[in-house]
Known about the structure:
Blueprint: E1 6-12, E2 15-17, E3 23-27, E4 34-38, E5 52-61, E6 73-78, E7 83-84, E8 90-92, E9 99-104, E10 112-115, E11 142-145, H1 148-151, E12 161-164, E13 166-169, E14 172-175, E15 182-188
Parallel strand pairs: 8-15
Antiparallel strand pairs: 1-2, 1-5, 3-4, 5-6, 7-9, 9-11, 10-13, 12-15, 13-14
Amino acid sequence: MEVQHIHLYLSAVGQELFRGLDYTIENLSDRRGLKVNLLTKWVDFTKATSPASLLLHTVMYEGYPEKVLPYPVVVATVFRIPTLLPSDQMIYANRTQVLRIHGTNLKKLERISPAYSRKQNSCAGYWGSNVITSKFPLQHDFFTLENFEDFRSFSNNGNNELRVYGICSEMGFLKLGGDDGILVARFHSYN
């Protein structure tokens, strides 16, 4: 239910956000907090670098003239949406040491974990299930994986393809590539 008696002044990258145009406000089910719902893109990344801060400058209650916040507070960090770039590079289950997966907007992510199953749709209980050797936060728009003997079990229907269907990051789960996922490598049989 939309909250009417609270007024917020929010901004991102120096641009004021307007209630009803850029966001709405709802009470959380336990009534101990507010939920700000996105209606438009909060940050125009043609004018800003990722990540950008979403600032709450003022909270005012109807009928109460005083500002509740003495100074602006960062309430969210807004990132560009990360993607992975398709690749059909060949890897060997027992011989390839490292697989580098390239993408866009990966730089500065604090953690990331690829999803190799169409069925996965959240990050719950998922962290640490992959062998990522990149240091975090990422310094480039790629990350590296190793332990391909285990990754071979993720290939689809024995067709020797390694596909990523989504990624988990500090922003939550992001589905990638639709139902087909994104091809990031092919396993080569050298027997």
